[in-house]
Amino acid sequence: MKTFGRTYWFTWAFLVLAAALTGVASLKDAFFGGLVAAMFSTALTRVYARSGVSFAPLIGAAAGALWVLLMLLKSKWWGYAEDYEQASWTLGVDISVHAAGFAGAGLMTALLLRWSLGRSALAGFALAAAMTAIPYGFIAWVDHRVAGPVEVVLLVSSEVPSEQGPYRAPGAVVAQLSPEEIKELKQNLLVVLGPGGEEVIDEQGRRYWPLWRHRLIYPGNPGGPVRTTIVILPPDVMGRESWNFPLSLAPSGLQIVNLGSGQKVSTTNASVSQAVTLKVVAETKGEASTVTVSAISFEVSRSSPVGSFYRPVAARSFPAAFARAPVIASPVIKKDVMRRPSFDTPAEAIK
E strands within 49-161? Predict the structure, then answer.
């Protein structure tokens, strides 16, 4: 029974420690989830002992990967949708951590027949740490280059008099351009300080203001460098149009994208990443003379060097036009107007 207990506590302790260092799960989830996962590793204690030093780590690694896949299917079939989505986003790190913990427990259990508990536990921990550090280091490097947050700044035009700025609803958060973004915009467009704040003027004299900023965060990697993309949406979009374009190659890069009719895209950044792309879909409403963009959606797609294991992160149903000031019509006052009498008609006919 001591051997079973040692296998259990080694597996549980390593899973909690790995979760704390990698951040793949909260300590609460790792604490209680590790209690159940360690039982599966403990059930293989006799298999570890009989397989020997050569095969026990291999069996443990396969068992750890199988456990993660079973938990993924469990959350898909019987869990909540957000739990399955989170599990699929962190699948690679989960497999790395569990396979390493099970393999380390297998090696320790096999070595207990030859070595002392201290030496066996140290060897098992060294193997588990190496198995976690190498794949997790590669995954973290790919996430740093590919899966960082993407911040989108949307610039739209509004037909207002030259001495006025766009009308924003009361309480609306006004998007602000940073000094670095203004400097980048000034290299290709005219940026002036107007009555509505910083405004951008294109070659046709159309005025643009930042409507909102939104950050698209990949849940498997919420931190890290932020790519910033300034999207200039023209006012002459007809119907429903979509644009696909790659984002900046640098994980913390800044680029300016001009959208045009017919899915035309022009960007100021020549160094782009083919692994990170942004899809923009704009929908318009109204007649040809009064076309306004009613909604816009963004979707970030990512692909790693070994395949497309990232699920797209989307943001939809954002308004893409400034609110117009309400027009209050003057009330029509009806007055009883007496008809001018005619001397050619009888007095009885005049009312």
Answer: 150-157
